[in-house]
Amino acid sequence: MIFEFDHFLASKSPITVSYRIDKNKAQMNRRWSVSTDGTAIFADNLDQFRLAKKMMSGQSLYLKTKDFRGTTYSMRISLKGSSMAIQKVLNTCEMSDDYFKKLGIE
Length: 106
Fold this sequence. Notes:
Layout: E1 3-4, E2 15-21, E3 27-34, E4 40-42, H1 45-55, E5 60-66, E6 72-78, H2 83-92, H3 97-102
Antiparallel strand pairs: 1-4, 2-3, 2-5, 3-4, 5-6
Helix pairs in contact: 1-2
């Protein structure tokens, strides 16, 4: 999962990101990577799968990060109708419910 911001965020990884699904508790201060052009962010594999699993049952995703100057950028993404597509990607990547359970993700 790659989240594109239309602004230059940073030239080096990691970057601190907070995210929340619906009104659930926010996942704070996660350390994600920055794209080579510095305008997009993405999580490590474990955080991606954890996030994808949570997105399947959510209605919206809220992301927040700061650029190298400390300016805050955020985005809200509607998740309505996305659970089947997310499940299809997880299946293609061979990420079954058993796989998540082994990682301690329910």
